[in-house]
Write a structure and sequence with these properties.
Blueprint (H helix, E strand, L loop, with lengths): L2 H19 L10 H10 L5 H24 L3 H17 L6 H11 L7 H39 L1
Helix pairs in contact: 1-2, 1-6, 2-5, 2-6, 3-4, 3-5, 3-6, 4-5
Protein name: HPP family protein
Keywords: Membrane, Transmembrane, Transmembrane helix
Length: about 150
């Protein structure tokens, strides 16, 4: 199994554990985090591209939060989806979970307006950091195992 996949699974389990034990951190765990994880490990590691997608997700959740706070109804939901789809196409974010994350404020009601955008931002930063660490660990491990095999045969 891919080391990045294991690292991501452990990260998501950790986020779930934190969000289930600490009520104030409940919004850290959201199903779309799994979709972002799969999207991120399915492509070669590129901090710029992954950061661009994470930025798009934060922008979209901010839009969803603003619209659902102004008028929590079907009209706001429609406007949210149209605006986010436009942004996805305009900036070539090419990540469907960005649209899904913009819908979170319409069905999760937080005590403070900033909780959902902050939670999405923190969760995605943690995901990117986990991937960055896993990427570097994967680069180190094969080199060391090749050196060990060469030492044994040499």
């Amino acid at each position: 199994m891919n080391f990045k996949a294991v690292a991501i699974c452990l990260y998501i389990v950790g986020i779930y554990w934190i969000s289930s034990r600490l009520p104030a951190m409940h919004a850290l765990f959201f199903p779309t985090l799994g979709a972002f994880s799969l999207l991120f490990i399915a492509h070669p590691f590129s901090p710029g591209k992954l950061g661009k997608v994470a930025f798009g997700a934060v922008v979209s959740v901010l839009i969803g939060t603003a619209l659902s706070s102004l008028y929590p109804g079907a009209v706001s939901l429609l406007i949210d989806m149209l605006v986010v789809i436009y942004l996805i196409n305009r900036f070539k974010w090419n990540a469907p979970p960005i649209l899904a994350v913009s819908l979170i404020p319409f069905f999760v009601h937080a005590s403070f307006i900033w909780v959902i955008p902050a939670s999405v931002c923190v969760s995605l930063i943690g995901l990117l950091l986990t991937l960055w660490i896993a990427h570097h660990v994967e680069r180190i491990i094969p080199v060391q195992s090749r050196r060990a095999n060469q030492a044994e045969s040499g």
